[in-house]
């Protein structure tokens, strides 16, 4: 290897995570690996790490993303479960390794740079979109502003709240857009950077007949607690861990990636003695004026919409609904639901921070208590029904998101979506349950 | 190469560059390029002013034009119907009037340039052109420049007042449409939003060929069955 | 002494920018590790940017469909060149200045204004939505910086009675401007952080746009853009050190060493703010820039003028 290649082989590996079904835990572990840097866009990455199981609906975006990685590139599949290999065969010679294996990443990376492993060829053919018109750039079409240059329709004019007629660009973001939850597809009409029309795309985790059933979920300990007895301390620590990982994601979105990584590290090391650490974290973050000004007043979700979905979203809007209040496993622990009033993104942020702190305190107080299986069980996003479905369905998303994001500026829109803590797999499970119960 | 020759070469480079850049403003199809060719032309003029020892004026010209040409690029893309030259619509109009006006101004300026007697007082660089400029602005020409300055300030304040959140006809968040003519028609409010985009059912599994052209996952334009008008 | 031969001048400015950008990268990495709580191995922190740069050199440059190729190539060049112009106007040691012209402050203002042009071009030329949004969001905010920048620099020029940076440095021989004009340095740092689209004012390349203007850049083009961005931080730090912190003046140590130390302190402040302050809301900060920063810089000019009279 030349000198430059030897120098480059010791660098932090830039990876772009692609989250399949059951892959969120793997993507989180990826962010915590030493010597690995998770980047915002495939063109900044050398390795594409697929976690979980890619579904059929996720394959076309995966192929497109794969081809965007610049050479030298390789794909690593952190396999979880047994199926999906046939889909990944379309991507190319994928390296399969067990989930969480950081050494395999380093091995593939140095092999790529030394030339021992050739860069993966493009998965899709490079076809120039056929478009011919009059003129040297092929411009021309019907009418003065007609045509679809290079296959893309020119933005049409649409009215603006100020009475102007401005161009509206149609964009599709997702399912692997880094600020958004994995699997969320949004069809946006933007004027400048302001969202005018928002529509939620089809959920790529929806199960088709013949697909493997959904899972393992991000909140798997809670789903297991519905079937089997589980110690209350373990459930509460899982809740705190979940909320802290979400907080780390929010911090990363707002440019505080290093602090987010510190919070994620705290989440991984969490145990019953972490009370002081989570308390100090909650106090420090809630005092931060810059975070507060970024999230206050955005995406106010209150009333019926918040109550219908339960969980921290409802409690941040003033509704004191918590299944733990009726749960026999929490009796005598002095549990009172944390409630905040305003229902905006800042309230949800504080809500989850304080609930994480409360969960660690509960875990310490309850000792060895074991909970009986079955409902009512409060998951991290709301009450869980048997079968593992929460209350957030695609119908609720399609109903609430357009209103929440209407006329929002881009940064505020990203903050708003992240503040809902969506898990598209749980949404797919909830859809399935709603469909079968009809 | 002596200083004088260097100055001469620099003058010709900046001068010819300014003229060529100005010509390219109207030859290019892309509006952003047009704005920045104009910036390049202004920068050439500013650098010639630096060569003429009017360094302060030249640098201030470049400073102001950088911001202004960026604003012009933004506005041209915003309001023009064909900002990238991808359509058959031509962006230059009134050819005859423009040609006549161009020829007339060229003849006029050339006449002035050839016939007038330009002053021949070389400035010695040590005098401090900026200080001289300052003395002129706040000395003999104070009334002129202070009036201009106050007028500009009043214009800026007026523009900000009109475009502020508390607009002329009510809160800016509600849209600034003027009140209706009929007494009982609904008042000003946000314009109706265009019909929602409903994604097709099989869209996510649709043509991977569309992705082959290098579109990213982050922004992929929704395929339409028919071309937009 | 002004340098009239081009080669040493370009070499000095290039050296300052390259070493400075590397220092910014190392400081950013070190402060990031401290904020993340992961162990800060010295070798990995110091060699990290070189290793990342080597990887970028080996990666292939990608292209999009019908980009504006000339503008895409020019954008990092414009940004880095303008950072170099700003550094050239500053005396880096006693009597060592590439171009200590009589209107140095105006030259610096013009250079920073052209940085804005470079970022807009980088966002627009890739023919891709996320870079376009990044470029536009940057311009929406950057236009608000010009007035506080000009006013704060002029206020610093008043005690020196000259627009030349060398004279401003010399006027601080008994009292630094950061003491004489307490509003000046914080305002300049805020504006400078915005001009370098760093940290809380990162409208151009933020994570909410999945990388913004740098989305479609890979390989050497990405390396050039990252170096250009850090060069702007270096230029802001060098100008701040000269205009507000007394430049090369100081006891015991040689002039260039003082300059380096002060520049490093400002770099640490800017990158530290990037790790502690969340990214601002765009419209909210535009209001802050016009309604708060401009009046404060006007107060700065008036007080400075009153003291100078």
Describe the structure.
- The complex is a heterotrimer of chains A (438), B (229) and C (309).
- By secondary structure, chain A is an alpha/beta fold.
- Helices cover 40% and strands 13% of the residues of chain A.
- Chain A has 16 helices and 13 strands.
- In chain A, α9 packs antiparallel against α13.
- The longest helix of chain A is centred in the middle third of the chain and has 22 residues.
- The relative contact order of chain A is 0.11.
- Chain B is mostly helical and 229 residues long.
- The N and C termini of chain B lie far apart (60 Å).
- By secondary structure, chain C is mainly alpha-helical.
- Chain C has twelve helices and no strands.
- Chains in contact: A-B, A-C, B-C.
- Chains A and B meet through α3, β6, β7 and β9 of A and α7 of B.
Keywords:
heterotrimer, B: 229 residues, mainly alpha, 7 helices, 55% helix, extended, C: 309 residues, 0% strand
What topology does this entry show?
The complex is a heterotrimer of chains A (438), B (229) and C (309).
Chain A: H1 3-9, E1 13-19, H2 24-32, E2 36-38, E3 47-51, H3 59-68, E4 74-79, H4 85-88, E5 95-98, H5 102-114, E6 156-159, E7 165-173, E8 186-191, E9 194-200, H6 220-227, E10 230-231, H7 232-253, H8 257-268, H9 275-287, H10 289-295, H11 304-309, H12 311-315, H13 345-366, E11 370-371, E12 377-378, E13 383-384, H14 394-405, H15 410-419, H16 424-437
Parallel strand pairs in A: 1-2, 1-3, 3-4, 4-5
Antiparallel strand pairs in A: 6-7, 7-8, 8-9, 10-11, 12-13
Helix pairs in contact in A: 1-5, 7-8, 7-13, 9-13
Chain B: H1 3-27, H2 31-51, H3 55-79, H4 95-115, H5 129-137, H6 142-162, E1 166-167, E2 170-171, H7 209-212
Antiparallel strand pairs in B: 1-2
Chain C: H1 6-36, H2 42-58, H3 69-88, H4 104-125, H5 129-142, H6 146-157, H7 165-170, H8 177-180, H9 184-195, H10 220-244, H11 255-276, H12 282-308
Helix pairs in contact in C: 1-2, 1-3, 1-10, 1-11, 3-4, 3-10, 4-5, 4-6, 6-9, 6-12, 9-10, 10-11
């Amino acid at each position: 290897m030349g000198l430059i290649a030897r120098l480059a082989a010791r660098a932090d590996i830039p990876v772009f995570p692609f989250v399949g079904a059951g892959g969120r835990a793997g993507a989180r572990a990826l962010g915590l690996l030493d010597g690995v840097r998770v980047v915002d866009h495939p063109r900044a990455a050398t390795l594409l790490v697929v976690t979980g199981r890619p579904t059929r609906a996720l394959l076309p975006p995966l192929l497109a993303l794969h081809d965007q990685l610049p050479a030298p590139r390789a794909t690593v599949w952190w396999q979880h479960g047994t199926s999906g290999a046939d889909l990944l065969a379309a991507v190319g010679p994928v390296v399969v390794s067990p989930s969480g294996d950081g050494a395999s990443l380093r091995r593939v990376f140095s092999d790529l740079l030394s030339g021992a492993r050739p860069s993966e060829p493009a998965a899709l053919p490079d076809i120039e979109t056929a478009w011919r018109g009059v003129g040297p750039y092929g411009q021309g079409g019907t009418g003065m502003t007609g045509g679809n240059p290079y296959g893309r329709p020119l933005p049409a004019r649409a009215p603006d709240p100020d009475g102007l007629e401005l161009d509206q660009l149609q964009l599709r973001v997702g399912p692997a857009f880094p600020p958004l939850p994995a699997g969320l597809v949004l069809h946006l009409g933007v004027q400048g950077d302001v969202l005018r029309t928002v529509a939620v795309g089809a959920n790529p985790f929806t199960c088709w007949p013949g697909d493997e059933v959904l899972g393992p979920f991000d909140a798997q300990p809670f789903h297991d607690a519905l079937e089997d007895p589980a110690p209350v301390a373990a459930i509460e620590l899982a809740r705190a861990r979940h909320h802290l990982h979400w907080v780390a994601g929010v911090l990363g979105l707002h440019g505080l990636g290093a602090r987010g990584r510190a919070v994620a590290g705290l989440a991984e090391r969490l145990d019953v003695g972490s009370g002081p650490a989570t308390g100090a974290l909650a106090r420090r973050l809630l005092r931060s004026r810059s975070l507060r000004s970024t999230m206050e007043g955005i995406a106010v979700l209150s009333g019926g919409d918040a109550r219908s979905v339960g969980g921290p979203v409802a409690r941040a809007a003033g509704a004191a609904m918590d299944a733990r209040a009726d749960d026999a496993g929490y009796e005598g622990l002095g549990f009172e639901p944390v409630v905040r009033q305003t229902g905006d993104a800042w309230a949800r942020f504080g809500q989850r921070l304080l609930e994480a702190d409360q969960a660690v305190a509960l875990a310490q107080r309850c000792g060895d208590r074991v909970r009986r299986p079955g409902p009512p069980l409060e998951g991290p996003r709301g009450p869980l029904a048997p079968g593992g479905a929460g209350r957030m369905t695609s119908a609720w998303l399609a109903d609430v998101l357009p209103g929440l994001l209407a006329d929002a500026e881009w940064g505020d829109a990203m903050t708003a979506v992240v503040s809902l803590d969506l898990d598209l797999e749980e949404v797919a499970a909830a859809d399935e349950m709603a469909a079968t119960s009809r | 190469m002596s200083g004088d020759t260097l100055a001469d070469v620099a003058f010709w480079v900046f001068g010819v560059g300014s003229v060529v850049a100005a010509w390219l403003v109207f030859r290019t199809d892309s509006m952003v390029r047009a704005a920045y060719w104009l910036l390049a032309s202004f920068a050439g003029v500013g650098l010639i002013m630096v060569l003429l020892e009017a360094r302060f004026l030249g640098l201030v010209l470049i400073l102001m034009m950088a911001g202004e040409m960026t604003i012009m690029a933004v506005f041209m893309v915003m309001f023009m119907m064909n900002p990238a030259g991808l359509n058959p619509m031509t962006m230059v109009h009134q050819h005859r009037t423009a040609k006549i006006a161009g020829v007339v101004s060229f003849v006029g300026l050339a006449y002035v340039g050839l016939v007038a007697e330009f002053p021949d007082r070389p400035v010695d660089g040590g005098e401090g052109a900026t200080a001289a400029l300052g003395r002129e602005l706040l000395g003999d020409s104070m009334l002129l420049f202070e009036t201009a300055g106050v007028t500009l300030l009043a214009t800026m304040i007026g523009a900000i007042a009109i475009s502020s959140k508390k607009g002329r006809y009510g809160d800016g968040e509600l849209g600034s449409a003027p009140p209706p003519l009929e007494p009982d028609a609904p008042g000003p409010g946000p314009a109706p939003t265009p019909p929602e985009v409903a994604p097709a059912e099989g869209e996510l599994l649709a043509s991977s060929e569309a992705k082959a052209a290098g579109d990213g996952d982050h922004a992929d334009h929704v395929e339409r069955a028919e071309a937009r008008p | 002494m002004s340098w009239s031969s081009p080669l040493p001048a370009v070499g000095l400015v290039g050296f300052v920018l390259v070493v400075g950008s590397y220092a910014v990268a190392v400081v950013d990495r070190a402060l990031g590790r401290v904020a993340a709580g992961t162990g800060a191995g010295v070798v990995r922190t110091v060699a990290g940017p070189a290793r990342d740069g080597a990887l970028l050199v080996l990666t292939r440059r990608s292209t999009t469909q019908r980009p504006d190729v000339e503008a895409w190539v020019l954008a990092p060049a414009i940004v880095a060149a303008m950072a170099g112009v700003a550094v050239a106007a500053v005396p880096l040691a006693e009597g060592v200045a590439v171009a200590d012209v009589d209107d140095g402050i105006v030259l610096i203002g013009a250079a920073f204004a052209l940085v804005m042009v470079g970022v807009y071009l980088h966002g627009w030329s890739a023919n891709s939505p996320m870079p376009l949004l990044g470029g536009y969001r940057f311009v929406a905010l950057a236009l608000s910086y010009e007035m506080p920048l000009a006013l704060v620099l002029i206020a610093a020029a008043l005690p020196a009675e000259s627009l030349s940076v060398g004279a401003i440095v010399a006027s601080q021989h008994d009292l630094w401007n950061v003491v004489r004009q307490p509003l000046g340095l914080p305002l300049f740092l805020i504006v400078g952080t915005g001009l370098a689209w760093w940290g809380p004012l990162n409208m151009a390349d933020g994570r909410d746009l999945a990388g913004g203007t740098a989305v479609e850049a890979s390989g050497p083009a990405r390396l050039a853009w990252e170096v250009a961005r850090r060069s702007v931080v270096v230029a802001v730090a060098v100008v701040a050190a000269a205009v507000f912190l007394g430049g090369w003046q100081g006891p015991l140590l040689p002039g260039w060493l003082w300059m380096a130390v002060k520049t490093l302190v400002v770099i640490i402040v800017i990158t530290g703010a990037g790790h502690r302050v969340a990214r601002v809301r765009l419209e909210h900060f535009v209001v802050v820039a016009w309604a708060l920063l401009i009046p404060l810089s006007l107060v700065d000019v008036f007080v400075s003028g009153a003291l100078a009279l």
